[in-house]
What does this fold into?
Amino acid sequence: MADTGTALGAPAERREGRDKVTGAARYAAEHPLPRRAHAWPVPATVAAGSVRAIDTAAALDVPGVLSVLTHENAPRLAEPDDATLAVLQNDRVPHRGWFVALVVADTMEAARAGAAAVRVDYAVRDHDVTLTEGHPAAYVPEEANGGYPAHREQGDPEGAFCSAPVRVDADYRVPPLHNHPMEPHAATARWEGDRLVVHDSSQGATTVRTVLAQLFGIPEESVTVLSEHVGGGFGSKGTPRPHVVLAAMAARVTGRPVTLNLPRRRLPAVVGHRAPTLQRVRLGATADGTLTSVLHEVTTYTSRIKEFVEQAAMPTRVMYGSPHSLTTHRVVPLDVPSPSWMRAPGEAPGMYALESAMDELAVELGMDPIELRIANEPDTEPDSGKPFSSRHLVECLREGARRFDWSRRDPRPGSRQEGPLLIGSGVAAATYPVLVSPSTAAARALPDGDFVVRVNATDIGTGARTVLAQVAADALGVPLDRVRTEVGSSDLPPAPLAGGSSGTASWGWAVHEACSRLRARLGGHEGRLPDGGIEERADTAGTADAESDYARHAFGAHFAEVAVDTVTGEVRVRRLLGVYAAGRILNPRTARSQFIGGMTMGLGMALTEGSTMDAPFGDFTESDLASYHVPVHADIPPAVEAYWVDEDDPHLNPMGSKGIGEIGIVGTPAAIGNAVHHATGIRLRELPLTPDRVLTALADHGSGGRLP
It folds into this structure.
C-alpha cells in the first residue's frame, strides 16, 4: 500500500474500496459454509390479534424443507429488553408483518416455497393504525428517544406568542420513512457445540453479541458476531433485529449453518422506520425579526409493544435564542410496526418544520432569511444555558451565501421563469449533536516495523477502517501504510455501534489513547521487539462519557435551487450546496462523500420518499423500492457541493472531530421546500413534494383557492 500521508486531514482512499467493487468483500449472506441451509419468514397477514392454529404439513412436504419453526416448537428465549426480538415465543400478533413462522430448507427457493405453503388461522381483533393530532390515546411520555425530556418550557411562551407583533403558526407533516439499505438485513448463523458464530449485517457487533448471549442463556465469550462489511443501515441496523435471532434459532434446531436474508418488502414491518410526525410550530417576533416566542409541538406514534418517540422538537432547543419557548412531544400507541432510528432521528423531521417556519417568518417580515437566522444567534445554548464548545453557523451561512451567489437572488416569489418552469432558491440551517461513547482499542507494534490496531468498530460504508488508520498513524507518528486496522468482530476489543454520528469520535478516542501509550512505550524500548510484538490497550470509560461543561454540536447551512414544472408538477433540484462546521475534518475524501450522501437522502425526503399506512389492512402500502422511491442518479443534479469551515474545538476528543454522517440530511428538505415556495409563491407543508401535490397547489393558487 502506498504511503498516502501520515497526519490526519489527508484525503486517503478507502482501504476496502477495491474489495467491494471486485466482489471480494463478503457480506452477511455471502458465506457459503458446508451444508448451509436457508430460511424464509412467514409474516402475519392480519393487523392485530393472535395465532389460533398453524398448519405446517404442506410446507414440510415441499422437497428440501427441513423444518418449520412456530411459537409451538421454536427454542425458548430469555425475555429480551427489546420486545421486537421475542420472535416465535407466543401466539400474539401485535401488527401486520410480525413473523409467525420460519421455514428452513436446503435452498432459498425451497424455503420460500415452504413459507408460501404454511397456513395460519388467526383470531382477529379490531386495530387502529391512524395517527391524528387529537387521538384520545395520545400522552406525553417522560422521555423522547435519546433520553431527552419530552417536554421543556421556559418563560411564558403562549402569552409572548399572542402579544408578538409578527407571528407564524403553521402545521407540518412528515410521513413514515423507511431506511432501505442496499444490503437487506441478513445473518448467517452456526453452532459449534455450545458456541454460536454469526455473520450479521449490523451497525454494532458488540451489542448483538451481548443480546444473543442473553437470549440463548450462554456466556458472552461463547458468542462471536462478525460484521466485517455492512451494506448500509441508516439506523435500522443499530441494534439486533429479528433476523439474527431467527437465524440462530434455525441453526440450533437443524444443526446446520443457516442464512436468513430478509426479503426487502418485509423490512418496513420488522426493522424499524422513521415514525410520522405531525408538527405545529409557532414563532413570535418583533418587527426587526427578534424572536420573542418559539413553540414546537410534535405528535407521533409508537407501537404497542415498544415505546419509541421521535425527538423531533429537540433541535429547536438548540437553534435560536428566545426568552420564551416550549418544546413538547405527544405519542400515540397504535397497532403499527415498532418505529426506530433512521438517519438523523429527530433532527431530520424537526429541522424541516423549524426551518420552514423560519422561512415563513422571513417572508412575513420582508426580511432576508439568512439575516433572520443570524439576528437570532444565541450566546449560549438556549435549553441548557451552557456555552457552545464551538458554533460557526453564521460562518456557514455567510460562506454558503457567497458560494451560492445569494446576493443576486430576487426575493420576490415567482420572479424567475423559464418557459413553463418556475425557478426558486431556498436556504435552511442544520445542526446535529456531538455524541460519543466509551470504547476500547488495542494497538500492537510488530517486529517488522508495522502496526496493527484492533477495535470492534463497524464500517457501514463510511470509510471507518481508513480514518481509524489515520488516527493511529497520527498518534504513532508513522506513515499510514505501516498501519493495519482490524474491525468488525466481537472478538476484538469491545466498541459501541456505528450510529448517531458517533462512531469515529468514540473509536478514534480509544485508538488515539492506545497508540499514544504504545508510542511512549516504544520510546523507552531498546533492541529488537519480541516475536509477538508489543501491545497497549485503552478504555475511555469515564472520560469519553464524562459530563461536559459545554454544549457540543455540529452546524451547517444548506442552499437549494429548484425548477418547478407548471405543466407536470415535477420539482427538479438544479443546485444543492452544503457548508458545514464539524470540527476537524479527518479525511476530506470520505467526509465529502458522507456530506453529499446525507444531502442526497435529504433530497429524497423532500421530493420522493414517503410511505402511507393503509388503515383497513394496517400495512405500509409502499413496501419495496418499486413503490418507495429513493432518489437515483438521474434525480441528483451534477452541482451537489459540500464544503466546510475550519473549526479548532478543544472540548471534543483528541482528534477535535465532530460527527458528519447525519448533518447532511438535516437541513436539505427545508432548503428545497423553501426554494419551491420562492419559485411558486405556494407554501407546501407536507412531504414529499410530489407532482400531484404541486399540481393541486398550483391549480388552487391559480383559481384563488386556499393554499396548502
Q: What stands out?
A: The longest helix spans residues 503-523. The CA atoms of residues 315 and 347 lie 6 Å apart.
